[in-house]
Design brief:
Keywords: Repeat. There is one protein chain. The protein contains 10 helices and 10 strands. By secondary structure, it is of the alpha/beta class. It has 2 domains: about 120 residues, 3-Layer(aba) Sandwich (Oxidized Rhodanese, domain 1), CATH 3.40.250; about 110 residues, 3-Layer(aba) Sandwich (Oxidized Rhodanese, domain 1). A 5-stranded parallel β-sheet has the order 1-5-4-2-3. It has a 5-stranded parallel β-sheet with strand order 6-10-9-7-8. β7, α7 and β8 form a beta-alpha-beta unit. α4 crosses α9. It starts with 5 loop residues before the first strand and ends in a 12-residue tail after the last helix.
């Protein structure tokens, strides 16, 4: 597993005192304050970096709004960010994807979540001292971003791309992109340890679904939260040709895109 993308609790525990390693807890404030958090973590709640007011843009908050959040958290562009939640990393992965899109070079997902960390390492309710910074975003160009829009997805449907739907079975059967396969994002998580399954096991699992590094992969769900987790996992495994449909099915349906319905023979 690529440690520039996903880091273990051991990796983070050995770096808690490094000033350039900034830990971001994306849970609600009451969880951060009342349940405790990783020492040194700042709180950037999930809802603060989501904006569902513009369906065509997906749910990205905008570069300036996100930069203000990072500035308020005392984060610099050169810092190493490690994000976590308490839901197997799915909300934290959305933070990772957002930070990447707005040009932060070094942002990583904690393997596991707060509950996994709490099993082995200390937590605290003390809030760190924060010195606000002026964070300058550097959004990826259209040639750099993994995000794709409606027209690019239409084009990909004409190619031999693998469309991966990470939603629940009932959502998938209600409406899905033509030819899509269903891969529940949680399948990559070991429910007992709350951490990702070993890389070899993940590779075998993905291959069983036909999700292989040699194919063009297009990920979607409803509002691009669940695919954030799958995107981070695939990236950590070395997949290079992964597209991220930011508008997901919400945008697709708003444009009256073609869908399939009903169960799929397996």
């Amino acid at each position: 597993m690529d440690e520039t993308v996903v880091v273990s609790p051991d990796w983070l525990a050995s770096r808690l005192d490094e000033p350039a390693v900034r830990i971001v807890d994306v849970r609600d404030a009451w969880e951060y304050d009342g349940i405790g958090h990783v020492p040194g973590a700042v709180n950037v709640p999930f809802d603060s970096y989501r904006d569902e007011s513009d369906v065509d843009r997906g749910t990205l908050p905008g570069a300036d709004a996100f930069a203000d959040l990072l500035g308020d958290a005392g984060i610099e562009p050169d810092d190493t960010i490690v994000a976590y939640d308490d839901t197997h990393g799915v909300f934290a992965a959305r933070f990772v994807l957002t930070a990447i899109e707005y040009g932060h070079d070094d942002v990583r997902l904690l393997d596991g979540d707060y509950s996994a960390w709490n099993r082995e390492y200390e937590t605290t309710s003390d809030e760190p001292d924060i010195e606000r910074t002026t964070y300058e975003p550097d959004p990826l160009s259209p040639d750099e971003t993994p995000l794709v829009g409606y027209e690019a997805v239409e084009d990909a449907l004409e190619r031999d791309a693998v469309f991966v739907d990470t939603r629940e079975k009932d959502e998938f059967e209600e409406a899905r992109l033509p030819g899509a396969l269903r891969f529940d994002w949680r399948e990559v998580v070991d429910e007992e340890t709350r951490r990702l399954k070993p890389p070899a096991e993940l590779e075998d699992l993905l291959e069983d679904y036909g999700i292989t590094p040699d194919r063009e992969i297009v990920l979607y769900c409803n509002t691009a939260r669940r695919i954030s987790h799958t995107y981070v996992v695939l990236t950590a495994l070395g997949y290079e040709n992964v597209r991220f449909y930011e508008g997901s099915l919400t945008e697709w349906l708003a444009h009256d895109g073609e869908v399939e319905t009903g169960p799929v023979d397996t």
